[in-house]
Amino acid sequence: MNLGEASIVLRHRPALEVVDLTLRFVRSVAPKQVLFLCGIVLLPLWIGLVALRAVEIPWALLWCAGVVAVRIAEIPFTVLYGHLLFERDVTLKVVFLQSVRVLGRVLVGFAIYAVLMVLSVVLIFGPLFIGANYFFLPEVLILEKAGPFRAFKRSHQFLAGRSGTGMEGLMFRTGLMLAFIVLAETLGQSLVRDVLAVHVELEDLWGSGGSPLALFGLLVFVPYGAAHRFLAYTNERTRQDGWDIQIAFLNLASRGEHRSRRDARHAA
After folding, report:
1. Which segments of 15-58 does DSSP mark as H helices, in order?
2. What does pTM read for this prediction?
């Protein structure tokens, strides 16, 4: 891993700057790969969720299924972003192969996480505690390739004494997810009814508890949500492992080498 070839500047950033960087990262680093992944992974998921609603599955169950689908759908996006941080090009074949390899341990890790979340409901702030302390669990499972049980220990140690960072990330992630859902619902309903003037009965998020447009917003959040948590993880690794300091020393060494070569040419 050559830190000097990272696709973003590796330095410690405030939380709001990470949110802003996320949009620029998704839009500029590999928009084509992200769009292809959306078409291959997210579109079938959306069609499947809409089909479940067509057979009158309750919205409460659909939203639960949607949240689970989001966590699983983020796997190939996280793999892609992990490659794109230090590589210019990566094929989707490589992304899918690595996603399949880590799928088993990620599912086990997510299942344990879900059990912990359910058990923590007995405490008022239990889910917030679990969500904050294991916020980077997917990155540890996917990118660090840790086993499920070791991943819980590693992700907890990763934020030891800094649970506020996990809480901050959890709040931003939840807020962004809700914003995507509401925005897709509002803009979608306006587009269908006012702009296109299509007279079709669509369920409404506020009246029915959900709609195909709201589900679309939930799934569109996946590439952005995965990128936000990945960049927050990278930001924390930069702070803990001193990546920015290492890059500074690499730059100094490079300048020194360049200066030595220049002096040697002048001496010759």
Report:
1. 15-28, 31-37, 43-54
2. 0.84
